[in-house]
Each structure stands twice: as structure tokens, then as C-alpha cells.
Amino acid sequence: MATADSGTGRDWAVAGGPTVLALALGVFPLAVLFVESIGPGLGTENYARAVSPLYRGALSYSIGVGVAVTVVCLAIAYPVTFWLAHRCPARYRLAGLVALTLPLWLNYVVLNYAWVWILARGGIVNRLLVGTGLLAEPLDLLYTQVSTGIGFVYIYLPYVILTMYVSMERLDYRLLEAARDLGATNWRVFRDIVVPQTLPGAAAATLVVYARIAGAYATPEILGSPGNVMIARLVVDAFQGYANYGFAAALSFVFLCLVLAGFVVGAAFPRVRRELRGW
Amino acid sequence: MSALTVDGLSKSFGDETAVSDVSLTLEGGEFFSLIGPSGCGKTTTLRMLGGLSSPDSGTVRLDGRDVTALPARQRATNMVFQDLVLFPHMTVAENIGYGLARSGVTGPERAQQVTEVLSLVGLKGFESRDPNSLSGGQQQRVALARALVNDPAVLLLDEPLASLDRALREEMQSEFRRIQRNSGTTFLYVTHDQESAMSMSDRIGVMRDGEVVDRGAPRRLYNQPRTRFVAEFLGDATVLTGTVRERGAGTVVVETGAGDVTAEQLDRDPTVGEQATVAVRPETVRLDGGSITGEVIDTAYKGFYAEATVACGGAELVVRRERQATLPDGGEPGTGPLFSVGETVTLSVERAVVVANGDG
Ligand SMILES: Nc1ncnc2c1ncn2[C@@H]1O[C@H](COP(=O)(O)OP(=O)(O)O)[C@@H](O)[C@H]1O
Ligand SMILES: [Mg+2]
């Protein structure tokens, strides 16, 4: 068919340019980075150093933080988005969603510093605790794993909520009633209906935030303890501190492989795979 | 003891009353239909019986036990939903076994019961199928099996056949009736389709604006409707109004716009000179040169019979004429009009009943 042919030709022309641009933007810097990491003489010494025990600790700690914060965000987002999509009166829904995702529109460095003011020894939390007599001495909340965790959850929760909300809204409430009618307790309804039906949303949310948390720079810098070094800090040090671009690139690639490995492990669960295929 | 006793059930949404003082009694093994036009409160009633929504007042008893305060999962009722709502991420067997699993029936025993109910609903060997890949009628059967397998005291069905085409709906109706007989389960079937309710049910309750206005066996409701609403909703009764002229033994003669009509008075007792409303079924109007003369104003072809609307002195009557296998002149059946607009016909009303007019 002539029309189909010319249509296909036009489709190629329309999609071709942007596709090439997207590939160039996505792949080209990675290719440069990779060449740098094995240079100058096709060596592997940069990689050998990147997986040495010193860096291995920071890599696994970063991945661990990524997983833990993602899990906490999901644990909070599930009930919140369920309530918003199925319990909250329709006229307050949009306002609720906007309020919960407000931090998305603020600069994230500022968001981190907000928690410095809140958690410092002379900050709001400590003044409240000491002022009400609950504590005699202010707590050291800032520059700990607790403050880092709070900062991470605060910054990434809105993304998780937004992504999960789309899934929750699509969840057919009548399925929950059918399960209850067949004798399911609230916990069984959650396990047997809500989770399987919203798994695409949870998977999407994980894709969006997990790697960004594991590779985050600002939050651990501003809120974290110097003893818990995350991988982004080491990459920055290699680039700026001692201008070892090859090593910085190798470290980035090792990190990328670990992140991808995390997704592969996730996709190994048949149910997750089935949900991902459904997209 | 009755399987289900409902007493004074009411529910409002805001200032709109959805269900008002509904009382019902269902005997064990009975097929009871609740019928009424869209929006009359059928679904709301059913949801309160199943525990998915709580009444403002009234009580629900199952096998004599007050369950009004119990949530759905603790009630011995199961629901077949209007849109089925099968669990899309589970196989047919997982869907059907879900209720059994929740009540603690384990592996092999559960598989056994699922297999049995699948063969009862005519889906032998469908255990591992994906419900999304089944036809409408098959999904219907799965939805029925999923509820039926739990052996509920009362099975609640909310217009489960409304979305099917006519042929499939009729097939499923007789299937439902067969399955109900074989399983001995008490069915409470909700529909706005009076025809299917009449063909399936042991008894029918007619709802209007949140109230049950009449109940009884299909024949009783059809032949002796107590109200104008029931007469018109069940079948195509024509309603005439007039003045009572004479009283006989259990009958009255009502002078209507169309002429004098003799009507059974049932449980009403109108006195001479009073206004009365009578309901007339088309099949009891005879085209026999009787005392009523009228002019055909509309005709409809209905297959094996033809129908005419006849204007007779300010009133309208509907009359039917059956097509015969062979016509007296030896012509083809189904050729030529049986009625034509403008034609004058003479009629008599063979049977009519006095009904309550107005909202009752
Ligand atoms: N959740 C609800 N909120 C507000 N009004 C409702 C709700 N459910 C039903 N209604 C109203 O109650 C009346 C009865 O509805 P329903 O029981 O669904 O009727 P039916 O099933 O007979 O069509 C309708 O007027 C409907 O608008
Ligand atoms: Mg309904």
C-alpha cells in the first residue's frame, strides 16, 4: 500500500532525528566515560582499585542506603496514596496530592538545609524535647544516619507518592470488596489484592528513586556523618581532589553495574517480571 | 427457620433515601428475585445484606442469627457482583478457591471443591485458565462458582447478567436456575429485567423508590397485581380509570372512557360512584366485535403476534393478534398487515383487575 509506505517514511523522518539526539545524549557521555575509565593504555588498574576493600565498603553502603530508603518511602506511600485515592473526599484529593508533593518544586539543597535547622542541637526538635522536660540534654540528631535517612525520605517520598498514586487510583475498589466478601481480613486484602494490583507503581517508584538515593551527593554531604561515606563523594573526590578522571569513571561504572544488578535481582521474581511486562 | 430475615432496613445518602423500611423473608433453598427500575435501591439493599455497607436502621438475620453488626467477611453470604470483579491477577482456580482459603480449607481439599464447583457450572478443566481470556458467559460462570463454592446461607446476585447479549442471557438464566436447584443454595437475585425474574423465581419482591411495594409468586403478581405500578412494571398492562357503576360477586363494573369493564376487585372494596383504576393485560383483550369500539392508532410487529394500540373514547387499550401457521385463504403467514393504522376495531375485555392507583 502506497499510503502506508509513505506514512512509514514520514514516521521514520519524524522519529529519526529526535531518536538520534536522544541516543547521542544518553550514550555518548557514557561512551566517553568508559573510554576514560580504561585509558590511557587499555588497562584495568582503575577497575581493580574501584573494587578494592576501601571502595567496596562505600559501594555496598550506598546500595544499602538506596534499598533501605526506598523501602521506607514505599512503606509510607502505600497507606498514604491508598487513603488519598480511595478514602479522601474527591474535592480534597488534588489539594492533598499537591501538599504531599510540594517539596518536588523546591531546590533540594535548600530542603536539606531545612533539616539542619530542624535537627541541630539548638534546632526545633531539641528545643521542644528539652523545653517540655522530656530530655535533660539535647540529642545529637544532626550528622548521623538518622538525619541522612530523614533527609532522603523527605526528598524522595514525593516522587514515590506521585508514582504510586497513579497505580492506586487505577486500583479497582470493588476488588477489595469482593475479597472482603470472600472472607479476607484487611491484611489479606492488602497482601492479595492491593499489592499485586499496584506492583507496577511500586516498581516504577523504585526505578525512579533507588539509584538516585544510592548515588546521592548533597544529602549525605549536608546531613550525614563524615564516617559514612557514600559513593558519590568518592567519585567527586577523584574528579576534583586529585583529578584522576580514569578512576572516577571506573568507580562510576562499577556503581552503575551494581545498580543494574539490583534491578536484575528484582526482575528475577516472576511476579515482578510479569508486572514489568505489563507496562 | 428462614434463611434470611430482613426487618425494617433503611439507608439514606445525605438527604436522599435510597432504601426505606425494607422487610423480607427468604426460605432456605428459595430463588427470590428483587426487581424494580434502575435507582430504586436494589444494589444498596444487597450491599447491606452482604455487610459491604451498614444500614441506618433495621436488622438482618441469617438462619435466625442477628448479623447486622458483622462485617462482610464474617457473614455467611456471598455476592456475585454486577460487573463480576474477578481477581485479574489470579487463575480461575485461585479465584474460586479464594474464599475457601480464607475459611481455612487447605490444599488438596480446596482443589477438590474447586474441581467440583467447576463441573457444576459447566467449566470442567478450566482451573489454570486466566479469567481475562474467558468469554463473557464463562466469566459469569466463574463469578458464580467463586461465590457458590463457599456454600453461603444466601447467595446475593446483583444483576449479574445485565451486560450479556440476549441469547447468552437467556442461556445463563436457565443455567442459574439449574445450578440453584442442584446446589440447593438460597438465591437472592436482583434485576430490573422483569421477564427474567418471572421465568427464574419462586417468589418476587417488587421495589420502587426504596420500598418493597409487593411480593409473591410470579403468577400472583402478574395476574393479581395490587398496584398500578406492579401491573405496569410486570408485563405490559394497560391502565384505565373510571367510576364504579355496579357491584357483583367479587367483581365491579367500572365505567371507563372506553366503555364498561368488569374487573376482579381482589382485596379492594370500591363502592358505587367511587373512582377506580383497573389494569388490563393485552392478552385478555378480545377482538370479537364486543361493546368497545376504537380506532387503531399504532401498530407493532412482534414476530409471532402483532400488537395494536387502540384509542377508544379517551382511553387506550393494547390488543394482540396471533399469527397463524396458515392463513384461512391459504396465503403465506407473515405477509400482509394484521392491523393497519386508522382501522376501526371492536373489542371486549375478558379480564381486568382493580388496582391501587398512585404511588402505592
Ligand atoms: N454510594 C452512594 N452515594 C450516594 N448515593 C448513592 C450511593 N449508592 C446509591 N446511591 C443512590 O441510591 C439510590 C439507589 O441506588 P441503587 O441501590 O444503586 O439502585 P439500583 O441498584 O436499584 O439501580 C440511587 O438514587 C443512587 O443514586
Ligand atoms: Mg444496581
Description:
The complex is a heterodimer of chains A (279) and B (360). Chain A is mainly alpha-helical. Chain A contains 13 helices and no strands. Chain A has a single domain (69-277), classed as MetI-like (MetI-like fold). The relative contact order of chain A is 0.13. Chain B folds into two domains: 4-226, P-loop containing nucleotide triphosphate hydrolases (Rossmann fold), CATH 3.40.50; 229-355, OB fold (Dihydrolipoamide Acetyltransferase, E2P) (Beta Barrel), CATH 2.40.50. Chain B contains eight helices and 20 strands. In chain B, the strands form four sheets. In chain B, strands 6-7-8-3-9-10 form a six-stranded mixed β-sheet, sandwiched between helices. A five-stranded antiparallel β-sheet of chain B has the order 13-12-11-14-20. In chain B, strands 15-19-16-17-18 form a five-stranded antiparallel β-sheet, with no helix packed on it. In chain B, a hairpin with a 2-residue loop joins strand 9 (203-208) and strand 10. In chain B, helix 2 packs parallel to helix 4. The longest helix of chain B is centred in the middle third of the chain and has 18 residues, at 166-183. The mean pLDDT of chain B is 89.
Topology:
The complex is a heterodimer of chains A (279) and B (360).
Chain A lengths: L1 H37 L6 H6 L2 H34 L3 H11 L7 H12 L4 H8 L13 H26 L2 H9 L4 H29 L3 H6 L7 H11 L3 H23 L2 H8 L2
Helix pairs in contact in A: 1-12, 3-7, 3-9, 5-7, 7-9, 8-9, 9-13, 11-12
Chain B lengths: L3 E10 L2 E11 L4 E5 L6 H9 L6 E6 L2 E2 L10 E4 L11 H11 L4 H14 L15 H13 L5 E5 L7 H18 L2 E6 L2 H7 L2 E6 L2 E6 L1 H6 L4 H6 L4 E10 L3 E6 L2 E6 L10 E6 L4 E2 L5 E10 L3 E8 L2 E8 L21 E6 L2 E4 L5
Parallel strand pairs in B: 3-8, 3-9, 6-7, 7-8
Antiparallel strand pairs in B: 1-2, 1-4, 4-5, 9-10, 11-12, 11-14, 12-13, 14-20, 15-19, 16-17, 16-19, 17-18
Helix pairs in contact in B: 2-3, 2-4, 3-4
Bound molecules: adenosine-5'-diphosphate and magnesium ion.
Adenosine-5'-diphosphate binds next to helix 1 of chain B.
